[in-house]
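Take a look at the protein record below with the fold in mind.
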Amino acid sequence: MNSEVSDLFKSDSAAFTIAPSLYLPIFNAGRNRANLQVAEASQKIAVAQYEGSIQSAFREVSDTLVNRRALKDQLDAQSRQLEAEQVRYKLSDLRYTNGVASYLDLLDAQRSLFALEQSVVQVRLAQLQNQVNLYKVLGGGWTEASASNNPAAATTAQ
């Protein structure tokens, strides 16, 4: 038995080869657990950010589609109003031509017609901007670089 104990301290002993392999996992176990917890926390954060991005994208698409519908309804109403205003202007012109109405009445009808036409153009512009925004929130497909390569697009953007 004495010889077995004395053999433990020899360099070719199995104890010298097993000791380093036992040492490393024992002292790294806490660090490994901490690294695992950090990786799991990072993964949970990434999943939460991804879910937030998805929810934000759905909200943006939904808002844009609601706005699109509202603009369509607004344009439909203003188009009907524009038709009525055009009839009013024609009647005012006929009344002025026949001497029944003053020139001021004709100018007032013309001013109302022009104001309504301008309003229709503004709503149509908002519709086009909404269409571009919808394209953008659905994923787009253009980049700023491609827009700047096209001189016509650059002048319209200004």
About this structure: The helical segments are 2-7, 14-97, 103-137, 144-149, 151-157. The two ends are 96 Å apart (CA to CA).
